[in-house]
Amino acid sequence: MGLLSIIKKQKLKDRESRCLVLGLDNSGKSTVVDWILASYKNRPRQLVTPTVGFQIHTVPFQNHSVQLWDIGGQSTLRPYWDNYFDKTDVLLWVIDAAAAARLGESVDELKTILQNRDRLGYNCRIIVLVNKKDLVADLDPVIVRLKTDLSEMLKLENVPIEVCPTSALTGDGLDGLMPMIVEKSARKL
């Protein structure tokens, strides 16, 4: 029960990834999580309702255990988001591409989170999903605006952010998400 036990526990812990799924209400966070659960835990797709509070799901992937923390995005819940930041390896930020009027609000909320980088952790990797791409005729202006806003916001920091257009309803663009989560959490400093 000495050093060997400690090393074994650390090896198991190194294969765990904690992914915090955040975004404004109705952005599709729970639908993304549902798609992951259906794809990697072989369960049927569920009827998704707005998350009140939070839900935690553990998904096995490539000898890793990925914990998905799906947190409600209603404005009344946002002040409590920072209670979930501890030990987060990957922040999965979900944006509703079909709600162009809320893009600024979503970027502002992400900016607020990134201003608390010490609370979130400087090793936390960030993936932004521009969701509901199936509902937008031309997604390019949304992606360009988002990348511009994010690069302007983070111009003085070395924060790697991956932006991915997706449709959680159809699964389009989500195939590479779990490998990205595991890769990003494995690159922790």
Automatic annotation (TrEMBL):
It holds the Pfam family Arf. Keywords: GTP-binding, Magnesium, Metal-binding, Nucleotide-binding, Transducer. PANTHER family: ADP-RIBOSYLATION FACTOR-LIKE PROTEIN 2-RELATED (PTHR45697). GO terms for molecular function: G-protein beta/gamma-subunit complex binding; GTP binding; GTPase activity; metal ion binding. Gene3D superfamilies: P-loop containing nucleotide triphosphate hydrolases. It comes from Lachancea nothofagi CBS 11611. GTP binds at residues 23-30, 70-74, 131-134. The keyword Nucleotide-binding applies. GO terms for biological process: G protein-coupled receptor signaling pathway. InterPro entries: ARL2/3, Gprotein_alpha_su, P-loop_NTPase, Small_GTP-bd, Small_GTPase_ARF/SAR. This is LANO_0H03004g1_1. The keyword Nucleotide-binding applies. Mg(2+) binds at residues 30, 51.
